[in-house]
Each structure stands twice: as structure tokens, then as C-alpha cells.
Design a protein that fits this description.
The complex is a heterodimer.
Chain A lengths: L1 E5 L2 E3 L21 E3 L1 H16 L4 E7 L4 H11 L3 E5 L9 H15 L3 E5 L10 H9 L3 E11 L2 E7 L4 E8 L2 E5 L11 H7 L4 E4 L15 E7 L8 E2 L4 H14 L4
Parallel strand pairs in A: 1-4, 1-6, 4-5, 5-11, 6-10, 7-10
Antiparallel strand pairs in A: 2-3, 7-8, 8-9
Chain B lengths: L3 E4 L2 E2 L2 E2 L1 H13 L3 E7 L3 H9 L4 E6 L8 H15 L3 E5 L2 H13 L4 E11 L2 E8 L4 E7 L4 E5 L14 E4 L10 E7 L12 E5 L7 H14 L2 E4 L1 H5 L20 E5 L5 H7 L5 E5 L6 H4 L2 E4 L2 H15 L3
Parallel strand pairs in B: 1-4, 1-6, 4-5, 5-11, 6-10, 7-10, 13-14, 13-15, 15-16, 16-17
Antiparallel strand pairs in B: 2-3, 7-8, 8-9
Classes of the chains: A alpha/beta, B alpha/beta.
Chain lengths: 259, 320
């Protein structure tokens, strides 16, 4: 099976995020980045297919400036076979539809049996690139899956609904699946894997290389402004030494009649 | 203002509350309101929506739509868009909505804003407000396309309570196959850890850093309060605690007399599960953590220093 895994690089969970001066994005020049958590589960699922069937090929793709090469190398170190970076200044303000168009251009050339990606990204939280990409590729999809069982030309997946319920559906291949977090236990790259990754192919492609014009990826959704949410009533912050705070805490619990 | 098409959602045979929240949003924008009800034998639901503010309700009723499939629902929505030519399509951001909305928007090469909490009018244009970076920031978006699409966070608006005289019209051309086949709904077996009836819950998050700290650091506070232990999603995803400990939209929805959140930043999916608690105390090292927005009392600092101090003070207060 040939599998395409889409990886997004997002600010590290522990990065301190500050707004950019023009208010349209965060300051991303000096922060650490990592592979979007949801996408790690998608990658792991693909690598598990390859573990069972060595003839399978796992292709990883990321859209972003050269810093994403590090994430792609990590994925290669974990066991992916090949990596593609797509970048072009025309993609700097890309929306989900534009990103999906760029991925679709590659996916159509590569003729994959399966496209895997995370349910959403930890930066924009749009959770919509997967279903858009599936439509552009003309394949069925399922979002937020927690398991996938492949059997011949089809796959049975469990989709996470609300309150712990799961919807079980069957899809024919080729198809697109988006992974929910906790789907599997994500592996680490081994030292041997990291060494091998250095020799694996990583191709950088521009929009022209994948046959798209800047106009084709002009965004239909633009972020006018991002800002710290207006403070609501906010919490009463307990101050003082840790023992004073502890006394105030006990006082609150008493007031509630719970002590 | 222009025309809005509301995509209704059916839950347990009736209208989902979130659909009536879309009615509130659409009516606030002014202009015409049309709605769509999709299912099999759901004429009564369409009649209900027509009386509750749905305006002209289109009924996509066919045996092939008895269960949700992206192909079937997308076909019905496309038919409704062809029939009504709306300027804006609103869909609830539920497991059905987020599976479906992007597919339909892409089929028309239109823009989509997801998980929107508010829509504002700005001159002739609309501004879509939503959270980003796991609720750390808010964003204002502009969307182009004809129609424009938005999915809306359930609970972001009040449900419409007015009664109106709408109409129901049957939509044809909605039958067809789906590539995806529905198999069944599985409900996870109830665990032994029911948090929904707990008076006090102390939940731990990723801030506890490793699984051993739930016993070493959190448990003494849980015991001193006579509480039950809960957890945030990342803790369960990492396998530190079983799923039955998870508080949030995909775990248990709780409303105890006291909820103590320890090392939990407050992702939306967690807040949905605990914000209706009677009293909330949050402990977090980041003063900007979204959890402090829903908390009554906050403690900003290192939980590894504070939590043991709280447990000790409680013990002393109880005379132990």
C-alpha cells in the first residue's frame, strides 16, 4: 500500500506565544516548533501498516518554510520512506482550501491508496483540511478516527463521537482518514533510524513544481486579526506565600461547606 | 442582509439544541432564513423546526439518508443550496458537522470558517470570530465564496425560543449511494469511575509531567478533599490514566460542587466538560491559561509546591 501522511509543523506545546506586531499571527521567529500532535498519530498508523507489510511505502509531506525539513527528517527517522516539502511565498497566508489544493496536486501525481493526517492542528484548530482534501481527490473520508482495520480493498474505522461513543464505518480504498489523538502509541525515532534518515530522499517543491499558480492558492479565508481574548469575569487570584495561599484555599472550601 | 441556510441536525429522533442555536445566529443577522432537515421519516422534525424559527424548512427525506454518511448529507446540502441560493451556510461543529462541512464547501470552491463562536456584521461584510491556539487567542476571519460556510461551536449562542410560522417543502433528488458504509454505533462500556455524581473532583493535566505524579502529588489533595480524581485528555491520550477518568466533551461532562483543575491549561474540549461546575479552582503556572477564564478562584504558581501545601493545610484544618 502507498500511503501519504500530511504533517504540519506547529509551535511547540511549551512555547511562549506572543502576538506579532501587525496582529495577524504570532511571533514565530524565535520559538521552537514540533510536529502537530494529531499528525504524529496519523504517521504512527501509517508506519504500523508498513511494519506488517514491508512492501508498503510511506511518503510524508509538509507545507512550510525550511524549518519543516527538521520535522520531515524526524518522520523519516521514525521509518517513513520519502519526504516532500512544499514551499512558496504564495503559501504564506494559505487557508485550508489552498493547503488542500497543494497537497492534492502532489497526491494525484503520487497515486496513493491512503492519505492520513491529523484531525486538526494545534495552532489554527480549523479541523477542515482533511475533508476538503478528500473532496478535491474525489475519495471518501472519515474524520477523528481512533482505530483502523484494513481488509483487502477496504478499511473499517472507529470515529470518535461525543461522550465516548464511537461510530463504526467502512470505506473503500483509496480514502482519506484523519486521526484523533490517543489512537495509538507513537514511536520514537531510533538512533539507527535517524542515521538512515539522512540518506532518505527529501524533495523540496515550489508551487510551479506541482503545477499551481499563486492565483490558484489565493486564500478565501483570511485572518484579519488575532488577539488575546477579552477577559471575562476572570478568577479571583489568591496571592501570598504558599502557606497563605493554602489557608485561603481552605477558607474557600469551608465557605462552600465542603470541609 | 442576505439569505442564510441552516443545516439542521437530528439527535435521538428530535432537533439537536445546536440547530436552534444556529437559528438564533441566523435571525440576528437579519435577512431570510431557510433550513434543511436530513433523514428518513423525519417530516415531524422539519415541522418542528419550521415552528421554532427555521423559516422555510427543506426536507431531505429518503431511506438512503437514515444514517449519517458524508456522501448522503453532502448531496442533500448541495441540493438545498441549488434550491435556495443562500449567501451563508451554517452547520453545527459536531462530529457530523466537522466531517461534512469542509467537503461541501470544497465541492463549491468556497471558503469555510470552522468552530465559530460569533458572527458580526461589518458594513456589508461578515466577520467570523473563533478561538485559535487551543483557546489562547481569538481570531477575526473574513471568508469569501458564494455561499460562505461556517461551522458553529455548540453552546456559543442561546437556543432560539420564539415560535414562528414557517413552512416545510420536500426536496427531491436527494436519494443515492454512499461510498462510506455505516456499520454501528459503539458505546464504550461504562467504567467503574463515574464522575458525574461526584461532589468534589480534582483533575490533573499535562502539568503533572509524568504518570507517577498523579499518585505522588495529586492523590494526597484528592484524599484530603474527599474528592474523586479526574484528568484532561492529554493525560488519557498518553495512557497515564484510563479513559474513564477523562473530563471533557469526549469524556465525562461533570458539574460537581467543587472542581479543582491542576496543571490543566483549559482546552475547549475540557472546558465544555466542567464549566458548569458550581465552583472552580484552577492551579496553573501560566497566568494567561484559558482555565482561569472559567475559574472562580485561581492560583498562579508551581503546582509541585502548591498542591502539597494545600493538602497539608486541609489535613490540619480537619484536625488531622
Amino acid at each position: 500500500m502507498k500511503i501519504l501522511v500530511c504533517l504540519k509543523q506547529v509551535p511547540h506545546k511549551d512555547a511562549r506565544l506572543e502576538l506579532a506586531s501587525d496582529g495577524s499571527w504570532i511571533q514565530d521567529a524565535n520559538i521552537k516548533f514540533e510536529i502537530n500532535d494529531y499528525d504524529n498519530y496519523a504517521l504512527e498508523e501509517a508506519l504500523r501498516i508498513k511494519d506488517k507489510d514491508a512492501a508498503s511505502e510511506v511518503l510524508v509531506l509538509s507545507i512550510g518554510p525550511d524549518r519543516v525539513q527538521q520535522s520531515l527528517r524526524t518522520a523519516l527517522g521514525m521509518g517513513a520512506d520519502r519526504a516532500i516539502q512544499i514551499w512558496d511565498d504564495g503559501l504564506a497566508r494559505a487557508d485550508s482550501l489552498a493547503i488542500a489544493k497543494a497537497i492534492a496536486a502532489v497526491a494525484k501525481t503520487e497515486k496513493c491508496d491512503l492519505v492520513l493526517m491529523g484531525l486538526m492542528s494545534d495552532d489554527t484548530n480549523f479541523a477542515v483540511t482533511g475533508p476538503i482534501l478528500a473532496e478535491l481527490l474525489g475519495v471518501p473520508h472519515a474524520t477523528g478516527i481512533v482505530s483502523a482495520k484494513f481488509d483487502g480493498g477496504q478499511v473499517e474505522v472507529e470515529r470518535e463521537l461525543e461522550g465516548g461513543a464511537l461510530e463504526v464505518v467502512k470505506l473503500p480504498l483509496p480514502c482519506l482518514l484523519t486521526a484523533q489523538t490517543g489512537m495509538n502509541e507513537v514511536r520514537y525515532a531510533s538512533l539507527k533510524g535517524i542515521m538512515q534518515a539522512k540518506r532518505k530522499p527529501l524533495d523540496k517543491k515550489s508551487l510551479a513544481d506541482i503545477g499551481l499558480s499563486a492565483g490558484a492558492v489565493a486564500p478565501k479565508v483570511t485572518i484579519e486579526k488575532i488577539y488575546s481574548p477579552p477577559k471575562g469575569k476572570g478568577a479571583e487570584i489568591l496571592s501570598g506565600s504558599k502557606d497563605e495561599i493554602a489557608q485561603k484555599f481552605v477558607g474557600k472550601v469551608k465557605e462552600l461547606g465542603l470541609l | 442582509m442576505a439569505k442564510t441556510l441552516i443545516v439542521g441536525e437530528i439527535q435521538k429522533g428530535g432537533l439537536r439544541e445546536a440547530t436552534l442555536e444556529l437559528v438564533t445566529l441566523a435571525r440576528k443577522l437579519g435577512g431570510e432564513v431557510a433550513s434543511l432537515v436530513i433523514g428518513s421519516g423525519v417530516g415531524a422534525v422539519a415541522e418542528d423546526l419550521a415552528k421554532r424559527g427555521g423559516g422555510k424548512v427543506l426536507l431531505a427525506d429518503d431511506a438512503s439518508l437514515a444514517v449519517y454518511t458524508a456522501d448522503g448529507h453532502a448531496r442533500a446540502i448541495r441540493r438545498a443550496i441549488d434550491a435556495e441560493k443562500p449567501d451563508l451556510v451554517l452547520i453545527s461543529n459536531t462530529p457530523i458537522g466537522w466531517d461534512l462541512a469542509g467537503k461541501v464547501a470544497a465541492s463549491l470552491d468556497c471558503g469555510i470558517a470552522t468552530d465559530v463562536i460569533r458572527i458580526e456584521q461589518d458594513g456589508g461584510d461578515l466577520v467570523f470570530v473563533r478561538r485559535m491556539f487551543n483557546a489562547k487567542f481569538d481570531a477575526r476571519l473574513r471568508v469569501s465564496g458564494s455561499p460562505r460556510f461556517a461551522t458553529v461551536q455548540p453552546g456559543a449562542s442561546d437556543a432560539y425560543t420564539g415560535s414562528e410560522s414557517g413552512s416545510v417543502a420536500k426536496l427531491d433528488g436527494v436519494a443515492g449511494d454512499s461510498r462510506t458504509k455505516f456499520v454501528e454505533i459503539r458505546v464504550a462500556p461504562a467504567g467503574g469511575h463515574d464522575l458525574t455524581k461526584a461532589e468534589i473532583i480534582v483533575s490533573g493535566g499535562r502539568g503533572l509531567q509524568k504518570p507517577e505524579n498523579f499518585d505522588a502529588v495529586l492523590k494526597p489533595l484528592v484524599e484530603a478533599l474527599g474528592a474523586q480524581m479526574g484528568a484532561s485528555r492529554p493525560v488519557v491520550d498518553a495512557g497515564w490514566l484510563p479513559h474513564e477518568y477523562q473530563v471533557g466533551s469526549s469524556g465525562q461532562v461533570v458539574s460537581p460542587k467543587l472542581y479543582v483543575a491542576v496543571g490543566i491549561s483549559g482546552a475547549i474540549q475540557h472546558l465544555v466538560g466542567m464549566k458548569s461546575s458550581n465552583f472552580i479552582i484552577a492551579i496553573n503556572k501560566d497566568p494567561d491559561a484559558p482555565i482561569f477564564e472559567v475559574a472562580d478562584v485561581g492560583i498562579v504558581g508551581d503546582l509541585f509546591e502548591i498542591v502539597p501545601a494545600l493538602a497539608a493545610a486541609l489535613k490540619t484544618a480537619k484536625g488531622g
